[in-house]
Amino acid sequence: MAILFSMLPVYIFGNFHCFGMCGPLVMMLAKHRYRMLYFIGRLTAFSFFGLLSGSLGIVLKLVFEGFNASALLSFFFAGLFAVFGFLSLNVKKQILPASFVKLLGKASQKLSLLLLKDRPETTFFFGLATPLLPCGQSLYVFSISALLENPLLGALNGFLFALLTSPSLFAALHLQRKLQSKNYFSEA
After folding, report:
1. CA-CA distance, 57 to 53, in Å (whole number)?
2. Per-residue confidence (pLDDT) for residue 3, from 0 to 100
3. Is the pLDDT of residue 91 over 70?
């Protein structure tokens, strides 16, 4: 439980990160009537993924204790990250097949159009999908949940993170509405 209290300042100051990274995405919801469903979906998803991470922490502890493989796995993953890092330096070569990139582009376009619809289910599902965004802070939260080795504490950790970083996203919504009321953006 002490680790949860030690994480509170990290989560509170994490609002700056959330405002810069997720704030622009949340700004798209400023005109939605059901924008609060985004936050409910976000709280639900982070709690659920925290619960899964806490459960995974129990399994990983049993595996690591049984085989004493933690050092070997650390070196393996460090090497794997180094290989991917060096591969990403060569930007001239396309790593993924062109057909897969085209498929991802189509899926991204359809999801974007779906998000722009002012419907309760799309807004809620956007909140549910938020933990799936590539975010280092989210990975940090789920790593802490796994270290807690308790599904309920993991869920509480995910919930606290989502709750304590919501003020920055509310600020992004408010800022977008304020900018729209001042006609800084023209409607197309």
Report:
1. 6
2. 80
3. no
